Amino acid sequence: MDPLKTYLGRLVLEELTPVVMVLTTPLVEDSCRKNGLGFVDMLLPFSVFKKFDVPVRTVNDQPYRLQMFKLRMVYASDVRQPNYEAAKEHLKQVVHDSGEKALSDLLSDPPQLETVLSNSESDLCPQWIQTFNKELIRTLSFSEHETFDHPVACLLVVSSKDEQPINKFVDIFNTNQLPSLLNDGLMDPKILKHYVLLHDNQDSSPEKATHILAEMRNTFGPNDCKLLCINSATEDVNNKGFSSVPYKTHGFLGEDIARCLNLEDLKSIKDFMQDLNSNHIIPFMEQKIRILNQQVATTRKGFRNQIKNLWWRKGKDDLPEDPSGSTYTFSSIETQIRILGDYAFILQDYELALSNYRLLSTDYKLDKAWKRYAGVQEMSGLCYFMLDQSRKEAEYCMENAFSTYLRVGSSGQRYASRCGLWWAEMLKARAQYREASGVYFRISIEEPSLHAAVMLEQAAGCYLLSKPPLLRKYGFHLILAGNRYYISDQIKHAIRAYRNALFVYSENAWSYINDHVHFNVGRWYGFLGMFDVAINHMLEVLACGHQSLATQSTFLNDFFHFVQRLGKSFDVCKLQLPVINLFSLKIVYEDHRTYASTADVDVTESLWQALEEEMVPVSTVRANWLDSQPKSSSRKDDDFSICVAGEAVKVEVELKNPLQISISVSSISLICELSASSEASTIDRSVSSAEVQEDTNLMKTSFCSDQKGENSSFTLSKIDVELGGGETKRVQLEVTPKVEGVLKLVGLRWTLSDSVVGYQHFETDAKKKHKKGKRSKHSWKSSLNLIVIKGIPKLEGRVDGFPTKTFAGDLRLLMLSLRNHSEYSLKNIRMKVSHPRFLIPANSADIHEDFPQCLEKQRQMENKDASGNAKNLSRSAFFSFPNDVTIRGGETFSWPLWFHSGSSGNISLYMSIYYEMEGGSSDMTYRTLRMNYNLEVLPSLDISFLISPWPSRLQEYFVRMDVVNRTISETFLLHQLSCVGNQLVISALPSCNSICSMQEIFAGQTLSCFFKLKVLMTGEKNEESVQGSDMLLSSAISNDMLLDVSRSPLSDFHYQERYHQGKLVKGYQSLLDFIMISKMVSSNLDSEEGPNQLLLSNHACHCSISRTSPIWWLMDGPRTIYHEFSSSFCEIDLQLTIHNCSNSLVSIRVATFDSMLETTQSSDAVHLSDNSNDQGGWYDVSLTNDIKLISNVQGSRSQKRLSESTPPFVWSALSSTQLAMEPASTAKLPLKIFVFSPGTYNLSNYELHWKIQPQGEGITDEVKNKSSSGLGQGHPFYLTVLQAP
User: What pLDDT was estimated at residue 1176?
Assistant: First the structure.
């Protein structure tokens, strides 16, 4: 790296240069003012020697050449440290002037990321910032602790018009006119003096000046005197303008600049400065360096001098600190060493300068002269940089100098800033941008707001130049800089800084700082009177729901204030207030599908299609007028949706107020375009895929044609809403096309607080955001582009009396009402219901019936096949109205419907009604009306049954019914219990008069009832039947009548319940069903309904019989027999009835035993034998107390006792019989016993061994839980055999 090619190298060569003090007389300045310049200003363009090739030799014998050199010409009155306040004002003016020049840039668009990243270092650090840095450095000139600002030479200038010019040279160089630094002994008064005689050619001829020059040379010496002639220009316009070029490049502007100077004058000035520099100043400095170096070598260099210096300075350790080091005079050795180092640095002998700075650094440190110590450390760092040596040492010196300046206090703070600028530029030259930004930030901490703002902006630029770019730090430091600019009343610079940071925060979700940037930029633009730009930025912060209430109020008030100050209407595309939720955008249009309400559109299209599958024809209609176009057209059907002329297209969208403040939104309407059919037929087929322009002018033009009028092709609706804080409202807008054509939905238009008109474009914004609609086959594009056709009139429908909340089992009669508003008649009406379990059509005659009286059981049924018809009807949800049913124009058609809430929960019922138009021409052949009702069904009564076989009857069952009221506050009256199927009859228990002991069941109550079921016929029937048994539970009320469960609608709903409950039954489904009819005493749901108006039917289907064995058997035969035992033994025939209760094939083996393992004896009428006597299954009963015994009977009895091995009876035939029984079958097995003596016998000494032969899954749950085989002991059967009289 060549330091001279870096910005810091050039800056050092421009700023650290020899100072030439200038003393002039007033007449000299008067001559120069003819050119709009001072004497120093006149010499300034020629004090820089860029193409300078002069050999220089300092302390080495080998000379080197200077390529660039500069002289700083300074009036003697300016050789002083500038006033701090004056310096601040000067720097403020520099910043202000640059802001005025950058005003035009504020009207352009803010820079984007790609543009900023492509900027070079010079773009990020513009010229005015470099000028500011230079001016900041120059404000620290002529300090008491540094010597590179000490004048090297003094230029004494006297005019040829002055009286006694020789004496004037002596007078102007006296102590009264010299700088204070010279008079105070801080500067060496023995400097090079050069005498100049200035002659104005416009005042007199040069002869007088020549004479004075000769006298000067005799007095002051021939080499130090010069004559300079100026103002030689005439009125020749050819010279005018050329002479001012050098001065304009240095910032001197104006018509009078150099107007009296011609090219010869400029050449003479240039030659004068060249001679002064080459022949006087540089040789003087070379000689001074050699002299000082000899003195330093004599007094300070060498081992002996170093020891002597340390010993001498050791005694200064007890002295107090002197941070400024004011005790050093120009004659002190320390000042001489500093002058030697500064002269060597100025003449670019950096090694000599560094050696002297290092020598001097130790002295100042030992003397605790911290300000001077920091100064030499600062210069040492620059020497290292210019030598391109030891980066570490250079940074250490700059860090040390910076910290030491801050240690000094307020007097060193400004010098720390200068040191920081050197340091930061040094790091930037080495591409250490991140470290340089840290230095700038440290400078900003110590500087006032304006200076800190410039430093923070430079720090931001360094973060952007880092690899990789640190964008967040870049933006953050720009915001800090902009805030400091605003504090310093530099609004233009504040705007510029904030605008440059916008792209950082617009790409991220940092809402608070993004609001801060946009709001302040907008506010500052408003301060400058640029209200249109201010409003554009304020629009970005309107939707600031995350801010506090006070902040939101401030944002909104300032926005409306700027709109009012603008003085004209303001239209905004994508106005953020209110927030338009395009995700909620829903376009409702009706083609052949119509809807009873807006909520019906939310139902998934696939559900409607499945419902209408068997009702709607497969092939649809003649198409619309577009079908007449050539088939080569590239337009696809999917590019368009279809709507009907004269019917509104509804657009639902969600508006949200993100603020905590209420806002007024008025005149909300759609922006639409409609091309008539004659025009649309000539449109290119790919028009639907073309993008609609997004600019506001197009939107305004489109809207202007939307206004209502006689010639308008469509009408629009307008609505006004008031949105409270944080409120969200869903609005519905309508557009009604009047003619056929192509309708395009462009966007929305609204007015905010009667001040600002907002637009929202659909296509460009919804293209990537639009949710897939409920109609899955339509895209957002087809929803925004609609073909308007002539269609069938729309049918309006509703179901009167449909509840929104009810209880499970609720049975009602509803009314379907269809209204035809057109003049055409409608025919071929069909209906499909999604849940026939809840809703079925009734007969047309039911419309005139009273409910529930129409359900009462009649003695003579008019229609015995009602159950069969109901069965077929209930199994299909499709219903065709009679062929003679038509709905004429302007009429309302009604048809009754039966409603039954089959199960609890949230239920959605869907209905679709198909119809066609009678006569007329249309692009459609049919339409459908879709209706959706949501229902909440609450639990009411839960009924369960436990059925057990009657122990002494084969075809009778013992039933326990449990009823639970699941409601919280409702009371039900039990009205009727019906048994459906298998020809069963309900009856009360023998000891009871009724089934239920109480008819009312209160909330949360459980009621248990017991009754008996009996099979009417012994033969089993597999055919399903709704014939059953009914029992009135509310017997106390004589007026109540039984309801006929075998007729519609109870039979229809029962089949539905049986079907749905059968899905939950695993295995064999029983045919035993129950229906419980009840009434609600009072209802809290519908206040208009009085008590006893709510009728409920609860269905319990597939009730099973509780069993422990798959078979059931019963012994049948005589109980008492008289026989004459004297003639023969008694032969008795018995019958064993066996029933297979399972759904499987059962193998049964019956085994009989002549003796029993266990016997019992009756203690009273029946005296059983003792357990020790193995009497088998017979019992010897003493009849002494009951009948008169015959002697031979007693004899035979005694004989029997004598023969202990002979049993009193035996089983006849085989001891074991085996049979196989089909499912649900009954078999009767004949048995026979021989009784040898009178008595009472228990014929239970037999066993039944069974084994199930599984057939699929047709096994009851009870049997599944048991083993597949088992053993059953005989039931007790007592037989009494008496001796015949």
Answer: 37
Residue 237, amino acid: V
Q: How many CB atoms lie within 10 A of CB 677?
A: 19
Separation of alpha carbons 491 and 102, rounded Å: 12
For helices 471-487 and 491-506, give the axis angle rounded to 10 degrees: 160
| Range among 234-243, 244-253, 658-667 rated most confident | 658-667
**Which tens digits make up the pLDDT trace of 903-926?**
889 999 999 999 988 876 667 788
- The answer to whether 532 touches 567, Cβ cutoff 8 Å, is no
Show Cβ contacts of residue 123 under 8 Å, excluding neighbours closer than 6 positions. none
Token digits of residue 413 = 């703070």
Domain ranges of the chain: 3-81+140-281, 579-590+647-789, 795-937, 940-1101, 1111-1283
Are 1232 and 1212 in contact by the 8 Å Cβ rule? The answer is yes
Q: What span, in angstroms and rounded, lies between the C-alpha atoms of 978 and 1035? A: 15
Query: Residues 236, 241, 245, 251: what is their CA dihedral angle, to the nearest 10 degrees?
Result: 130
**How would you classify the pairing of strands 785-789 and 641-644?**
parallel
Distance from C-alpha of 343 to C-alpha of 284, rounded to nearest angstrom: 10
Torsion, CA 996, CA 998, CA 1004, CA 1009, rounded to 10: -10
Q: Across the chain, which distance is largest between two alpha carbons, in Å? A: 202
Q: For the chain, what percent of residues have pLDDT higher than 70?
A: 81
Q: What is the pTM of this model?
A: 0.65
Beta strands, E only, 825-873 = 825-833, 839-841
Q: Per residue in 716-740, pLDDT tens?
A: 999 999 999 989 999 999 999 988 8
pLDDT digit string (tens) for 536-551? 888 888 888 888 999 9
CA distances 372 to 6, 362, 1088, Å, are: 27, 11, 102
Instruction: Specify which residues 729 forms β-bridges with.
Output: 655
617: its two tokens: 């024809």
- H helix intervals, 34-125: 39-43, 84-101, 113-117, 121-124
**Can 795-937 and 940-1101 be said to share one CATH topology?**
yes
The architecture that CATH gives domain 795-937 is Sandwich (2.60)
The domain 940-1101 is placed in CATH, from the list 1.10.150, 3.40.50, 2.60.40, 3.40.1350, at 2.60.40
Contact present, 907 and 932 (Cβ < 8 Å): no
- Segment (H or E) for 307: helix 303-314
Determine the topology of domain 3-81+140-281 in CATH. Rossmann fold (3.40.50)
CATH homologous superfamily for the domain 1111-1283: Immunoglobulins (2.60.40.10)
**Burial profile 478-508: b = 16 or more Cβ within 10 angstroms, e = fewer:** bbbbbbbbbebebbbbbbbbbbbbbbbbeee
Flag whether pLDDT at 706 surpasses 60.
Answer: no
**Separation of CA 431 from chain center:** 41
Architecture of domain 579-590+647-789 in this structure? Sandwich (2.60)
